[in-house]
């Protein structure tokens, strides 16, 4: 197409489609010089050189460099290079007709830059000939430090200053610890010499390792900073303080593993750090490595780590009075964490077998409690300690099961009434307005800032939305939520019911065991009926491990499905079926 410009000169342009066809054919033939001239003349995106056939381009990259043989064009090409596949975006109208299109090139910029750099480095030309595009390959691939190391001349540094902001380039030069180049780059920026010259001079006067540490600390490279500071043998105390401030305890342990004294100091600091995070067991391990057994025992006691505590106590050779005090502290920690089995074991070690049985009974560990009674030749403890609490537990379980079933029946009956009212076409229109008001209120609260007042308002709105008060516009959803919770909590009782029934059977209390199992069986049958009436024709949406405690933020859509069964697979005893 030939046109006459405003000045009167003639301008020839190919139609875009014809240009793309021509460029594609040239690329297929490997005529890279011709295609380079065509794309630049017709202002076609240079990414087309790669995106037309990425794998073929990477295989032909040496030929590409040799044919183009123009550092300036290669620099422009690298500047235009992006992760975008232009055959799928700006030129997709032409390329969508090509059926056999492979996937886009992953990590396109890095891979193309690496391939071009290798080709230019291995060419027969003097390396300075391709210096600028080689520098561009490093910059585009994110390796600015390597580009700075390669840029030896003032001209090369000036070129880098065109590619990268001079302030960032200055920081990168510091990052490779090249103070001379940092000084030159700073001179090309708008920085005040009174700021950077004294700083660079001060760095120059430092020990090399400490200089690297100072730079890394400024550039917020804590791991590299610590590695360099460790090399400064006369700055051990500063190093330990830096470990504490940076929190790099794990790296410090690795770096100081051949320096016993410093290693112990790091262990103690790490122990304090873990203790503050309430990671008591790990803190105890660090204190042990640091040689502070008293702190280790304190931490492990708070963790309730019975065996580790007893091992350390044995190493300490406590007096009898101190050992009793230690046992009591450990026992308190175990009971606070509801570790009844470990607490019972500690009682046994102290010779307090009756207290050990009481701990096991409190933890509903019936079989172990009965075993302990007979192990220590005290069968009377079964009658005095185990049996009364076991019967009381059976009675409470019966009451709990029956109460849950009664609540489920009440709420499911109410749900049917609510649904019948909603099906009434004369339903009050105001209810819909209330629903929208409550829902929008909750939405506004949940998207607001996390202040105390906002949190309270959110909770208030949530309570209103899930209220079981009759007439609540969202009463149906609230009832579904409550029924779901009741079903899951009841089904989870099956495991505990089995344990209780086994203990009752062991003591010959068949009537009580049979009564409890029958109540559980009746409850599960009632749950099945409620499932069918509340969720007619539906199947459980969740499966397998998703049968966890229900989320209080369940959506209305989730409530349309019945909860997954939480019944223990082997809960029922055949002898009472």
UniProtKB/TrEMBL annotation:
Signal peptide: none
A GO biological process held by the record: tRNA wobble base 5-methoxycarbonylmethyl-2-thiouridinylation
PANTHER family (UniProt xref): ELONGATOR COMPLEX PROTEIN 1
Residue intervals of the ELP1 three-helical bundle domain: 381-529
Residues covered by region (Disordered): 439-463
Compositionally skewed regions (Low complexity) per UniProt: 439-455
Occurrences of domain ELP1 TPR (ranges): 210-369
GO CC, any one term: cytosol
Tree of life domain: Eukaryota
All residue ranges annotated as the ELP1 alpha-solenoid domain in the record: 16-203
Pfam families: A-sol_ELP1, HB_ELP1, TPR_ELP1
InterPro entries tied to this protein: A-sol_ELP1, Elp1, HB_ELP1, TPR-like_helical_dom_sf, TPR_ELP1
Entry's Gene Ontology molecular function annotations: tRNA binding
Protein name: Uncharacterized protein
Lineage: Eukaryota, Metazoa, Ecdysozoa, Arthropoda, Hexapoda
């Amino acid at each position: 197409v030939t046109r006459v410009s405003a000045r009167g000169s003639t301008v020839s342009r190919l139609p875009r489609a014809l240009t793309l066809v021509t460029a594609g054919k040239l690329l297929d033939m490997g005529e890279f010089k011709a295609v380079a001239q065509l794309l630049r003349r017709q202002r076609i995106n240079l990414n087309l050189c790669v995106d037309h056939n990425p794998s073929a381009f990477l295989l032909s990259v040496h030929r590409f460099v040799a044919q183009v043989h123009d550092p300036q064009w290669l620099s422009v090409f690298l500047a235009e290079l992006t992760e975008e596949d232009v055959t799928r975006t700006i030129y997709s109208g032409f390329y969508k007709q090509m059926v056999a299109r492979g996937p886009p090139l992953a990590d396109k910029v890095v891979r193309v830059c690496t391939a071009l750099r290798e080709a230019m480095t291995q060419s027969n030309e003097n390396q300075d000939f391709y210096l600028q595009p080689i520098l561009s390959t490093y910059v585009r691939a994110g390796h600015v430090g390597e580009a700075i190391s390669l840029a030896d001349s003032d001209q090369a540094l000036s070129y880098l200053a065109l590619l990268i902001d001079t302030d960032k380039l200055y920081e990168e030069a510091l990052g490779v610890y090249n103070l001379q180049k940092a000084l030159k780059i700073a001179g090309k920026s708008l920085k005040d010499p009174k700021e950077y010259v004294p700083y660079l001079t001060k760095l120059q006067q430092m020990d090399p390792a400490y200089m690297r540490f100072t730079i890394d600390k400024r550039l917020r490279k804590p791991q590299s900073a610590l590695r360099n500071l460790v090399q400064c043998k006369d700055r051990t105390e500063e190093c330990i303080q830096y470990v504490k401030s940076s929190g790099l305890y794990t790296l410090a342990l690795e770096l100081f593993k051949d320096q016993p004294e410093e290693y112990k100091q790091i262990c103690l600091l790490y122990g304090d750090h873990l203790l503050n995070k309430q990671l008591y067991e790990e803190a105890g391990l660090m204190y042990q490595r640091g040689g502070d057994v008293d702190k280790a025992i304190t931490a492990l006691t708070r963790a309730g780590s019975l065996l580790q505590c007893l091992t350390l106590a044995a190493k300490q050779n406590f007096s009898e009075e101190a050992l009793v005090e230690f046992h009591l502290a450990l026992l308190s920690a175990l009971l606070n964490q509801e570790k009844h089995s470990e607490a019972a074991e500690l009682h046994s070690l102290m010779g307090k077998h009756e207290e050990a049985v009481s701990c096991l009974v409190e933890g509903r560990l019936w079989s172990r409690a009965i075993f302990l009674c007979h192990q220590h030749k005290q069968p009377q403890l079964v009658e005095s300690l185990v049996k009364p609490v076991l019967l009381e537990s059976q009675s409470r379980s019966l009451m709990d099961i029956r109460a849950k079933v009664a609540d489920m029946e009440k709420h499911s009956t109410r749900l049917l009434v609510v649904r019948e009212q909603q099906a009434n076409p004369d339903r009050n229109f105001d209810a819909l307005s209330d629903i929208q008001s409550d829902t929008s209120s909750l939405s506004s609260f949940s998207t607001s800032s996390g202040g105390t007042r906002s949190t309270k308002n959110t909770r208030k709105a949530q309570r209103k939305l899930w209220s079981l008060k009759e007439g609540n516009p969202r009463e149906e959803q609230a009832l579904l939520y409550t029924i779901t919770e009741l079903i899951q909590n009841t089904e989870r009782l099956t495991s505990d019911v089995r344990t209780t029934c086994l203990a009752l059977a062991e003591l010959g209390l068949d009537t009580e065991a049979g009564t409890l199992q029958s109540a559980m069986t009746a409850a599960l049958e009632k749950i099945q009926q409620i499932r069918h009436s509340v969720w007619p024709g539906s199947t459980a949406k969740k499966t397998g491990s998703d049968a966890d405690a229900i989320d209080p933020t369940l959506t209305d859509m989730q409530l349309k499905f019945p909860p997954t069964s939480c019944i223990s697979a082997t809960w029922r005893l055949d002898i009472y079926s």
